Amino acid sequence: MICNEERQYVHPDGQSWTTLEEMIARNIYQNEIKQDEDQLFSIKTLPHFGIGQTAYIIQHADQNILWDCITYLDRKTISHINSLGGIDAIALSHPHYYSTQVEWAEVFDALIYIHEDDQEWVTRQSERIIFWSGEHFELSSGVTLHRLGGHFKGGAVLEWQQGNDGKGVLLSGDIIQVVPDQNWVSFMYSYPNLIPLPAEKVREMAERTKLMKFDRIYNAFHRIVKTDGIAAVDRSANRYINAINGKLFEI
Length: 251
Fold this sequence. Notes:
Blueprint: H1 20-26, E1 30-37, E2 40-46, E3 55-60, E4 63-67, H2 75-83, E5 89-91, H3 101-108, E6 111-115, E7 129-132, E8 136-140, E9 143-147, E10 156-160, E11 169-173, E12 177-178, E13 185-186, H4 199-209, E14 216-219, E15 224-225, H5 229-244
Parallel strand pairs: 4-5, 5-6, 6-7, 11-14
Antiparallel strand pairs: 1-2, 2-3, 3-4, 8-9, 9-10, 10-11, 12-13, 14-15
């Protein structure tokens, strides 16, 4: 059902299905784990699989947090992550990245945090899933999930105040999307189908980020706003709103 609605799509040639076991047996996939900065690692599957998103591990205090999830999980990945201290918690931005979250949680004995507004999209139930409520949820001191909505009603971002040498990091999934010009971001209801969000929702999202502490933004596809992230969100929201309202350019 996650594909058969307006935010995603079913391929014109139809859907194809596999399993994690089949992926491992094919022996063509591997996970690339890279250190992006002190206490922050990115994980991506090669060759490209599915949407092709990137997951991140934050090493914070006595807790390792996985932000968003990828499908592929093999022994080499498990060994590498265990060498980093394992995973204590998994937090999700929105349903497109639920993936094999339950397998990851079981392997690493972790809990999964999803906003309750998106629980209808969880098709594999697990006692490990915690549905949090409200506008923000503190995973650990200085690590907070914020429900911004937009792309999905329960769409969340993660604010890591101690990241980036204390200047702060925002892990945005694609609730706030870093665009190819990585000095800017954007916002959409549907990315593949190019359905925009209302101007008032984008303004609300931008205003919420002004209350957070971050200088750098990482999105779900390893694009990075390297500095002045709050200002980048604000000016991007202004540009978006001007475009929607017909004030950015003449047509």
